[in-house]
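Troubleshooting entry. Yesterday's outputs looked truncated, so today I'm pasting the complete records for two proteins to confirm everything comes through intact. If either block looks cut off, that's the bug. Protein one:
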Amino acid sequence: MALLHDRGPLSRRSVRLGLAAVLGMALIAVAARGVHAAPDRTTTPIHHLVVIFQENVAFDHYFGTYPVAANPAGEPQFTAAPGTPMVDGLTPALLTDNPNGADPFRLDRQQAMTCDMDHEVAPEQRAVDGGRMDRFVEETGNRQTGCRPETVMGYYDGNTVTALWNYAQHYAMSDNSYGTTFGPSTIGALNLIAGQTHGAVPADVTDAAGRAVVRDGTLVRNLAPAYDDCSRGQTIAMTGRNVGDLLNAKGIRWGWFQGGFRPTGTQDGLSVCGSRSTNVDGRAVADYMPIVEPFQYYLPTANPHHLPPSSVAQIGTTDQANHQYSLADFWDALDAGHLPAVSFLKASSAEDGHAGFSDPLDEQRFLVTTINRIERSPSWRSAAIVIAYDDSDGWYDHVAPPLVSASDTAEDSRTGSGRCGTSSPGAYAGRCGYGPRLPLLVISPFARQNFVDHSLTDQSSILRFIEDNWDLGRLGDQSFDADAGTLDTMFDFTPASPAAPLLLDPATGEPIRPTRQ
């Protein structure tokens, strides 16, 4: 169904009245056909993929000095095992004679909560400065009251992001993975599920400051999804297909599970997402943010009213929840033995790692609690967990991203004012990429152990793994899935000894020691 609207962004009310009937009829039709999950046929031993999609971390911000931690007294310790591979990280020269306006510096556990950096398309590209990577303080450093722009050069080590370093030590990580394009959270979330930020309706949208939010049909800034009762203000819809459409076509069980998705009430006939959680700084943060729920931008995969699944047994199928769930539904499905083949997990905002309202310690608690529980389940034997991030938050990273997708909009400045390379005729504008380097980890019995992958990948590589593992085909329409690098090099599907579960302490990130009997 094509949506045309030439008088500004779609309102929540107009979407509800104009499209709820269409969505309801589609779901009734699916239910009437008795669609259920197809037999689980995969091209690898992975039958359950869990993608934990976190927020706003550049690679050097978490792994710049891996595997060497400072190990001050009184903090969780990290000492690398012999033979641990090095990463393309912060060299002594970069640490003490950096080309930026400040040298990188270590952030301690007591500095877990920081200001949010500037991570819009234009500042991120200007920070790259033609590949010199030397303008982060000026371009993405936060200059708001109470923030220091030099903070953008800060990094954590294995005494704060201890769990992530231990996962990297025990399983596989990449030091050459990137955001598919530059820009903030919604852009990364759409690239994860569609390899695509083009197809926005309305095709041109500006914000109150007159800045482009959608340009020529491509999203270039965050904007809330049209098919979500909990959206506020301006909204957009996305046309085209996403991975949910491909999974549905094959009858594969799947779902997006997000903290705070379950409504806390209604107002004016619309669901309200009002739950809040307290972060390590003592601040209460709204659990649910619509701008990071990508399936709510597409009518065929949306659950506008945040309806619950009709039963635990139906989680992952096309019922009234339409594959969009609360995190609590994920645990119900796991405990009942109904884990979908593909699950996307989104933490509540206080635990998603986004600077300004989350932090590494709250994030660690979520990651470890989640991964421990999956590793203790029967599904672990055929599972893979991917930890990935939606954008860099503007944090300093020293590696210039490769230029694989050109663009020439007013927001671009990768290779000059209004330029990100030279775009090809007919190519969708506003998709300059790759964007910043981001962490990527694979946790699985089939993950290569204590392994650093140097293969070139991006966010749409996760999409491509899903397509290949379940033989779904490609999305087309200039989706980046067609050219994405593979994640296969992070796996060993014929291991002599599969990787054992690594259970960690959610507070410290250190391995849990078995209790002697």
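Protein two, checking that the full record survives here as well:
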Amino acid sequence: MTRNFRWMAGLLVVASLAVAVPMATGQTSTKTPIKHVVIIFQENESFDHYFGSYPSAKNPPGETRFIARPNTPSVNGLNHGLLTRNPNGTGSQPFRLDPSQNYTCDQTHNYTPEQQAFDAGLMDKFPQFTGKACSATTYPSLAQYGAGVVMGYYDGNTTTALWNYAQYYAMSDNFHGSTFGPSAVGAINLASGMTGGIDLRADDAYGDLAYDVVNNTVIGDPDPWYEDCISYDHVALGGKNIGDLLNAKGVTWGWFQGGFTPSAPYSPGNPAQCNTTTNRLDGTPEVAYAGYHNPFQFYASTSNPHHIAPASVAEVGNNGPANHIYDLSYFWQAEAAGNLPAVTFLKAARAQDGHPANSSPLDEQGWIVNVINQLQQLPEWSETAVFIAWDDSDGWYDHVIGPILNQSATTDDALSGAGACGSGADSLAGVQGRCGYGPRLPFVVVSQYARENFVGSTVLDQSSITRFIEDNWSLGRIGTGSFDAIAGDVGTLLDFTQKRNVLLILNPSTGQVTGVTE
């Protein structure tokens, strides 16, 4: 099969499928009209940090304007006394960050400090435990706040695109990390809902394993065992993930990540190197790839440790040398060739992933908008749902504690006292070190089946995305203590009784609406 002359991001692409690869079957058999799910998985933002004042933006002169549509619902945000009578104390009240402050330093977002900041639900110790002062040299406008910078939030003059997606589609104000903890934890919870069950392969060459693992459970940011491009200690996980379930049913899928193509290829005795850089909007180069952001590399069954490229574009989404793990560029090649997988995980290069210190909301905005603008041009768009989610909160202030559905009692727990997250009785599998739900995170659904200008408050977590995939393709559950067993339904943000023929095109630089058809 050949599909020629397909427009891709303003460029004419000629794609040819020249090599035959056994194709997966079963991907069109779904319980809903959704035949394609695209998960855009970003980095390190709390709900209040991005949506705390939604839908009210300050709109000062010179900044990108945002005016909410009529009848826009409110969210459980900061506009109900928390801006002036915040429990974090005098000098640590929430404050607005403007677009010129889009670059900030990274805050503390580890398993224990996050619980300490929550203070048994009082939500009053963020500057003490997750706040981190920004350097006056690098961030001159932020240094004045000290650790209180953790209380900063953006409004629709900076996070304009996300607010506009929420205007025309659906968002949740009750979506949480499955557990407390940083990026690797969130990524693993997306892939399997299970951070416990580390197998015997664990390397402590860098001396950090004690910070990353407790009671055989990942609570930090180790690198994956099945990964050439490592920077830290690395561990392997047993058990299954959503990729295993998709493979068992012959459903096409792939994880696509910026910088996955190695800067120096693997050869026997020489691991692949991943030193490719991409530039931020301000011109700063950032190493593109981070191994611990890639959850499928923790599992032998779904890993591509040597970063082997697919044999052809026809392999993308199917079994082959790349084993479903690809550079981000292969998603666009597959899309141009009419080979869109049923389930797609997209991970931006680090300069565009939104992570403080190496990216920003404006870098992130440009990348997300370009992706969604392009997806809307596909013939498959009418049967596609895009889930925009984040891996952790970065420690940024959020005033909501989610339900603690899984308790824990390890030396690293601190939610309800030293060594305690509740009574310590893990309700799922008896695995310690999985205190959760964790911090509240943004979550936006873009689809012609998304409810219009809708805010959902059903309790959701990262494994809710996993559960939707399981249910839509009748995959069954991961089991062995996965959070998928108790996850809320993201389908509450969708309405399958009607499809809205809406196309929303945004400006990637400003996030403003440039075209909308309904």
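Both blocks look complete. Sanity check on protein two: Confidence is low (pLDDT under 50) at residues 1-26.
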